[in-house]
Design goal:
Blueprint lengths: L2 H11 L3 E7 L5 E6 L1 H5 L2 H14 L7 E5 L4 H11 L2 E8 L2 E4 L10 E9 L3 H12 L3 E10 L10 E6 L11 H4 L14
Parallel strand pairs: 3-4, 3-6, 6-7, 7-8
Antiparallel strand pairs: 1-2, 4-5
Helix pairs in contact: 3-4
């Protein structure tokens, strides 16, 4: 069994694959959601996923790992452990991704952004912009799941599992038209 098959089986067994009517952090609607927190609650499995991301990376070794909160916290920490570097995270403040809690980035630092799921790439790009504002350089991005389809990021990226999951613009959502209750499992707040 390949690691990809093993991971897919584990995500199913952990209850991380959900079906229903979900409002994604991107604002899109989907009949599927991957709640990576359910899979990452197991420290040994989370460590294995972080190690697999670091082992698969073919770019330059980062000076640190940066993740957007909330989804990237656990996997980012575990990837940083595998790389042997520090880990920090960004948070939304007034709807803008920013460094808080006394975190700072050294000018010229090379970093890798680590997330649980790439959906549209918005959180990754906002995190990269926050890093660039500090003078740091994003050399790549890693995730457990990639559900971006054919969309790519402006820097090298790697995901442990690529999933082709359906997503709809809200105005074209057949689940909305059918009256299915909408659930918002993500961490981004909408205004």
């Amino acid at each position: 069994m390949t690691y990809e098959e093993e991971l897919k089986n584990y995500l199913s067994a952990s209850g991380a694959f959900l079906e229903g009517h979900f409002l994604l952090s991107s604002g899109l609607h989907s009949p599927n959601y991957v709640q990576c927190a359910l899979a990452l609650k197991n420290p040994a499995r989370a460590g294995k996923m972080g190690a697999a991301l670091a082992a698969g990376w073919r770019g330059p070794k980062p000076d640190l790992v940066l993740s957007p909160a909330m989804g990237g916290l656990i996997i980012g920490h575990e990837a940083a452990r595998a790389f042997g570097v520090d880990f920090i995270f960004t948070e939304r403040e007034n709807n803008v991704m920013t460094l808080r809690r006394g975190f700072s980035l050294p000018k010229g630092a090379r970093l890798i952004i680590v997330e649980d799921v790439f959906t549209t790439g918005k959180s990754t790009l906002e995190t990269a912009a926050a890093a660039a504002a500090c003078g740091a350089v994003t050399v790549g991005a890693l995730s457990v799941i990639n559900r971006m389809g054919e969309k790519t990021l402006p820097f090298p990226s790697l995901s442990l599992l690529k999933l082709d999951l359906t997503a709809y613009q809200p105005e074209n959502c057949p689940l909305c038209r059918a009256g299915a209750p909408l659930v918002k499992p993500g961490s981004r707040k909408f205004t």
